[in-house]
Amino acid sequence: MTPEAPIALSLGDPAGIGPEIIAEAWVQRDRTAPPRGAPHPFFVVGGPEVLRAAIAARGLDCPLVPIAEPAEALFAFSAGLPVMAGLDAPYTPGRPSEAGSKLALASLSYAARFALGGVAAALVTAPIAKAELAAVGFTTPGQTEFLADACRLPYRDAVMMLAGPSLRTVPLTVHCALSEVPALLTSDLIAHKARIVAAGLARDFGIARPRLAIAGLNPHAGEGGRFGDEEARVIEPAIRTLQGEGFAVVGPVPGDALFTSRLRATYDAALCMYHDQALIPLKALEFDEGVNVTLGLPIIRTSPDHGTAFDIAGRGVADPGAMCAAIRMAAECARVRAAA
């Protein structure tokens, strides 16, 4: 993998907003550029007819440039949005279909191969509809787990981090019922994922000694055991283990204080006990620039931190900010990783 290679974009569900915000990201490509840098060339894996229809529906000035190999995107990018042909489906915004789901899965599969093969500097995935994909053979809970499989890693080694300009959060448990969270949390799980987060912040974000804040599970971090014993029984032992290994870790921090502006300045990432504890503050503060980053993989993967938005697809109102931010972050991470 080299930073000179282009970034691969998977199309996502073609009935969602993915195609139009990808095209808009090329139109607004200056927003995808890292600070003091030029936009990093990117290309889309499949869907030229879908993209053409989405561009027309949105009224964009976005020429499409067919390419046969990823490297061609480096030369084509200035003339238009490079697209690899061969995979396509009808454009039916707001109405997911079997053909569209097959296109989304094929696009993701090939884009992952390009990243793993080093001919793409990074992978940016547009939103998918998991239920629709399951009907055409998608067997993993989500794209993060799909990529862990592609990299031949266990799911727990692929760690989801949500990142914006002022906050990074990591949910230690993800898509499960809230009632299941206490049983899923272990000291080993917390310590294992914290190590991956620290390594990822160093490797892809250039933070030499990452500072991690670990949230409590219960109100007031348990209030000394009055509101639950998970802090003393599970979370604090993990923190002591990590501190003994030399990591800069604090906690357990009460969830109602962890995301104040004063505390946000004291850590590089907050490790949260469950999905909404991590995603609510990120989306409240950074919705239009929130990026889903997968740490722990040999490849760089980012994604907009939102879904397919079938209800507004094709109406020309979807904001491309998170897609631009995901492309920009992928380029920045590729540059940092290559320079190490």
Can you offer a commentary on this structure?
The protein has helices spanning 18-27, 48-58, 73-76, 98-116, 130-134, 143-150, 181-184, 187-205, 230-244, 261-264, 275-286, 321-339, and strands at residues 7-10, 42-45, 64-67, 81-84, 122-125, 159-163, 168-171, 211-215, 248-253, 269-272, 291-295, 301-304. It is of the alpha/beta class. It has a 12-stranded mixed sheet with strand order 3-4-2-1-5-12-11-6-7-10-8-9, with helices on both faces. Strand 6 (159-163) and strand 7 (168-171) form a beta hairpin. Helix 8 crosses helix 9.
Topology, pairings included?
Layout: E1 7-10, H1 18-27, E2 42-45, H2 48-58, E3 64-67, H3 73-76, E4 81-84, H4 98-116, E5 122-125, H5 130-134, H6 143-150, E6 159-163, E7 168-171, H7 181-184, H8 187-205, E8 211-215, H9 230-244, E9 248-253, H10 261-264, E10 269-272, H11 275-286, E11 291-295, E12 301-304, H12 321-339
Parallel strand pairs: 1-2, 1-5, 2-4, 3-4, 5-12, 7-10, 8-9, 8-10
Antiparallel strand pairs: 6-7, 6-11, 11-12
Helix pairs in contact: 1-2, 8-9
Helix content: 25-40%
Could you list the spans in which at least 5 consecutive residues all have pLDDT below 50? none
The helix tally amounts to 12
- Global geometry: globular
Distance between the termini: 13 Å
Q: Domains counted in the coordinates: how many?
A: 2
Please write the CATH class name of the largest domain. Answer: Alpha Beta
Overall mean pLDDT score?
Answer: 93
Strand content: 15-25%
